[in-house]
Amino acid sequence: MKVFGVVGPSDSGKTTLVERLTERLATDATVATVKHLTHDPDVDSEGKDTARHRAAGAARTYGITDEGDWFATGDARTLSATLDDLAPDHDYVVVEGFSGADLPQVVLGGRDHRGPTLAAGEDASSVDVDEVVEALRGVDPYVTLSSLVARAKRSPDAEKAGAIATFTGRVRAKEHDDDEPTELLEFEKYEGVAGERLDALRAELEERDRVHEVLMHHRTGVIEYGEDIVFVVVLAGHRKEAFRTVEDGIDRLKEDVPIFKKEVTVEDEFWVHER
């Protein structure tokens, strides 16, 4: 699933651009949208704020406030939790108005934002939708364990498989009680080489008898304590080859794929390979 945002002042035409992008992407893909709400969501209980998203072709829509209230009903709904829910079933998510989100952004009116700039213009009319769609080819997908498991279940060989085994690596605070707590990790990949080696490793593992599909994903950038780092999913005929391949997969990924890790504790920061 590819995720990107549209940000800009209130009069810059954000929703208009979201409509155009959704219409373009929905011609051959499943699209969801998320809108940043700056008011009490109860005022919009009939969905007027996101109705234009749906009319443009979005399969699902969400409105979320900074306090975690979300459109229509409920509370404690965050952007990250929403994206996790959407990942297994959607090809794209267009996020409107979350300037502070670390997402590739289409920036209108020079709006300050956190993530990298995907495209920019003074207003919606000055953005070329086809150029945005082309730029999305270079955006890393938003991957969760659930989205990888869903993909494995769609394998042409799924009818031959009696097991799906998974591994999730996460950021731990400490290994021993007297360790300095880790606040976050930062990962950088060797561009080009990391992807090639990961593809080669997957292909090698899938050559094993009764192993039907191997899926792997390693996040890059800043990952805070408690968040997930890496996933391995194996679809296999039986549990023994599934478990064995998951273990070999994560061990080989750590050994063979050039992804570098910086650790930030409460008192220090260092690249692990240098130490």
Summarize the structure.
Helices cover 28% and strands 29% of the residues. With 275 residues, the protein is α/β, with parallel strands linked by helices.
Can you describe this structure?
The longest helix is centred in the C-terminal third of the chain and has 18 residues, at 239-256. The protein has helices at residues 14-25, 48-55, 79-86, 129-135, 145-153, 193-206, 239-256, and strands at 2-7, 31-37, 60-65, 92-96, 105-108, 117-121, 163-170, 182-189, 211-218, 221-224, 228-236, 259-265, 269-271. Strands 3-2-4-1-5-6 form a six-stranded parallel β-sheet, sandwiched between helices. It contains seven helices and 13 strands. 28% of the residues lie in helices and 29% in strands. The protein has two domains: 2-138, P-loop containing nucleotide triphosphate hydrolases (Rossmann fold, 3-Layer(aba) Sandwich), CATH 3.40.50.300; 145-271, Aldehyde Oxidoreductase, domain 3. The model is unreliable at 41-45 (pLDDT under 50). 32% of the residues are buried.
Overall shape: globular
The CATH topology of the largest domain corresponds to Rossmann fold
Structural class by secondary-structure content: alpha/beta
Low-confidence residue ranges: 41-45
**Gyration radius, in Å:** 21 Å
SSE string, helices as H and strands as E: EHEHEHEEEHHEEHEEEHEE
Fraction of residues in helices?
Answer: 25-40%
Largest sheet: 6 strands, parallel
Task: Give the name of the CATH architecture of the largest domain.
Answer: 3-Layer(aba) Sandwich
What is the strand and helix layout of this fold?
Blueprint: E1 2-7, H1 14-25, E2 31-37, H2 48-55, E3 60-65, H3 79-86, E4 92-96, E5 105-108, E6 117-121, H4 129-135, H5 145-153, E7 163-170, E8 182-189, H6 193-206, E9 211-218, E10 221-224, E11 228-236, H7 239-256, E12 259-265, E13 269-271
Parallel strand pairs: 1-4, 1-5, 2-3, 2-4, 5-6
Antiparallel strand pairs: 7-11, 8-10, 8-12, 9-11, 12-13
Helix pairs in contact: 1-4, 6-7
